Amino acid sequence: MKKEPDLKNPEIAFAVEAVVQAAQAAKMIQKEQADLKLLKSDDSPVTAGDFAGQALVSRLLAQHFPKDSLVGEERAEKLKSTASTLILKTITQAVRQFDSKATPEKICEWIDQGRGEAAGRFWTVDPIDGTKGYLRGDQYAVALALIVNGKVQMGILACPHLDENGTIQPQGPGALFIAVRGQGAWASGLNDRRNFIPLKVSSCKDATCMRILCSVEPSHTSQTHTEAFIKDLGLKSGALAMDSQAKYARLAAAGGEAFFYLVPKSKPNHRMKIWDVAPGSIIVEEAGGRVSDLEGKTLDYSAGTSLKNNPGILVTNGHLHELVLTTLKKLNRNSKS
Ligand code: AMP
Ligand code: MG
User: Fold this and answer.
1) Which 3 state secondary structure label does DSSP give 106?
2) Which residue of 46, 213, 229, 279 could cross-link 155, Cys pair, CB 3.0 to 4.6 Å?
3) For residues 204 and 212, what is the distance between their CA atoms, to the nearest angstrom?
4) According to the model, what pLDDT value does residue 34 have?
5) Atom in ligand 1 nearest the alpha carbon of residue 247
6) Cα separation of 307 and 299, whole Å?
7) Residue 37 banded pLDDT, cuts 50, 70, 90
């Protein structure tokens, strides 16, 4: 494993610059216009910060790797209606901090370049993972990954409200987490990136000491399942709720041992999107942890924008993976929700 990431590597240099710019834009907008949002077709919110972030990542990708495609969470369609004039103005102001010539038309074009094909070599971005956390002033992450032939090769998370140890620091400068397949995972400050520390998951093997993480949003977590899980294994501590892939960063930095996304019984076909999992999952794996679906299978990133072949997600420090899998299977057999 390398002591630190090679910041001169062109892919790493691009990825760092892209997520740092997107995080700076998100912070800028949060200070002024955080409540400026639209609702997507699934009723989830999207803010000026999400759009500005995707535009900035897309703009830099076109400069650094013009042949690579981008698969992003956001679409510009709704921004083009007159009802969105104010939000588009806010986005334009934020993007102009990095490119003084950016126009609203060009920004919509950059955002829609994120509709690339999820095949071969491509990048996937969630410009603000945890938009609801961002709106509440809680955890969120700018999440970007490079996928080649169905395998994540690099992942990066900018977490403005975490420190390098995965500790919650809403007033701090934030942290950057990065992993390269076969080379390791590291963390640094978000602004001061001179020192990277290698990430290593917790060595805990004792189930009762397991610290679990979970979503804040009730619709993403089955509270009944989480409580049953804690009781079944006799965990000494309750679950720590955090939005976004900040959970992967915290677990990679030994700040927890496990978290999972179940398939809600009311939505048996629900599958996670690749941008919600790929960046965080390689960071956990390169820190020595394990990521699988709830059947224990490796995640398959060659099936389009969703993890179609993988029901649910389980993320652990590795040592406790099999025990958590078996326990979840047992609880699932006995549950109705
Ligand atoms: P969270 O960890 O709660 O911040 O969720 C991370 C991402 O996963 C968000 O983009 C959510 O929209 C998505 N997600 C997680 N669980 C579900 C679910 N049960 N239904 C729909 N989306 C989900
Ligand atoms: Mg997301």
Assistant:
1) helix
2) 279
3) 12
4) 62
5) 2
6) 7
7) confident
Question: How remote is the CA of residue 270 from the centroid of ligand 1, in Å?
Answer: 10
Nearest alpha-carbon partner for 130 in 233, 49, 55? 49
Distance CA 32, CA 297 (A): 44
DSSP track, 40-84? -TTS-EEEHHHHHHHHHHHHHHHHH-TTSEEEES--SGGGGSGGG
> What is the percent of the chain where pLDDT is above 90?
91
- Ligand 1 site residues (CB inside 6 A) read 130, 215, 217, 219-220, 243-244, 261, 264, 270, 276
pLDDT tens, position by position, 292-315: 999 999 999 999 999 999 999 999
Ligand 2 centroid to 236 CA: how many Å?
30
pLDDT tens per residue across span 201-258: 999 999 999 999 999 999 898 889 999 999 999 999 999 999 999 999 999 999 999 9
Q: Do the beta carbons of residue 149 and residue 155 sit within 8 Å?
A: no
Which protein residue's CA is at the shortest distance from atom 17 of ligand 1?
A: 220
Q: Is the pLDDT of residue 336 over 70?
A: no
165/250 Cα distance (integer angstroms): 7
Ligand 1 pocket mutation, candidates 131, 215, 222, 314, criterion most atoms within 8 A of CB = 215
In the prediction, which pLDDT does 32 show? 81
User: Is residue 337 very low, low, confident or very high in pLDDT (cuts 50, 70, 90)?
Assistant: low
Catalytic residue ranges: 50, 131
Out of 216, 219, 261, 307, mutate this one to test ligand 1's pocket (max ligand atoms within 8 Å of CB): namely 261
Ligand 1: which residue has its CA nearest to atom 2? 244
On whether the pTM is more than 0.90, the answer is yes
